[in-house]
Amino acid sequence: MAKILIVYYSRSGNTKAMAEYVESGVKEVADVTVSTLAVDKVSAKDLLDYDGIIMGSPVYYGGMASELKKLIDDSVVYHGKLSGKVGGGFASSGNVGGGNETTIMDILKALLIHGMIVPGHYRGDHYGPVAIGKPDERSRGECRKLGKMVAELTVRLHG
Ligand SMILES: Cc1cc2nc3c(=O)[nH]c(=O)nc-3n(C[C@H](O)[C@H](O)[C@H](O)COP(=O)(O)O)c2cc1C
After folding, report:
1. Residue 54 pairs with which residues in a beta bridge?
2. How far is CA 12 from the centre of its chain?
3. How many CA atoms lie within 13 A of 78 on its CB side?
4. Would you list the DSSP string of 80-107?
5. For residues 22-38, average pLDDT
6. What is the mean pLDDT of residues 87-114?
7. Strand 130-132 to 86-93 pairing
8. For the residues of 116-129, what is the DSSP string, one character each?
């Protein structure tokens, strides 16, 4: 059974709502278990337990929140051990053009540096789901799409 972690930081609930829609996409796939956790419930060591790791953050000055960045920086002690796991990212901003894609790229760059495998998508939100404030119907669909895509690839590689 492939194991997926969705870890997020959220101060006012928008990124948390996205995480829940990502989780519903993961659950469309058989032979997968999923844990959806706020970042303060996850240690760097916990990352070792999962085959797929999806990270979400609000946009703070065009990048990820320091709370999520801290988890990533703490994970340096396991550098090399996350290699081959599947990854993904998502972000919520206040404004259109407020930095959603730069924030997702912040997350994906870190996962790639860990040697993780990050799928893009040829339609819709190419790098990962974005939302402006509370996720609307379009964004909710993109979140489910990411969850399903990461789960399917994780099962193929690790199931
Ligand atoms: C410290 C701080 C910095 C922010 N920087 C940006 C920004 O650069 N661009 C933007 O569009 N929104 C920015 N926002 C707005 C948040 O990204 C937005 O409200 C987001 O939906 C909050 O997510 P949450 O409900 O999960 O906490 C900022 C908010 C805070 C508190």
Report:
1. 6, 88
2. 18
3. 21
4. TTSTT-EEEEEEEESSTTSSHHHHHHHH
5. 98
6. 98
7. parallel
8. -B----SSSSSSS-
Q: How far is the CA of 1 from the centre of ligand 1 (A)?
A: 36
Determine the Cα–Cα distance for residues 112 and 107; give it in Å rounded to an integer: 9
Report residue 115 as tokens: 């040697």
Pocket test for ligand 1, best of 20, 61, 104, 132 (most atoms within 8 A of CB): 61
At how many degrees (to 10) do helices 137-158 and 14-26 cross? 50
pLDDT-based confidence at 159, cuts 50/70/90? confident
Position in ligand 1 atom list of the atom nearest CA 15: 26
Residues in the chain: 159
State both tokens at 99: 């930095």
What is the distance between the alpha carbons of residues 83 and 136, in angstroms, rounded to a whole number? 34
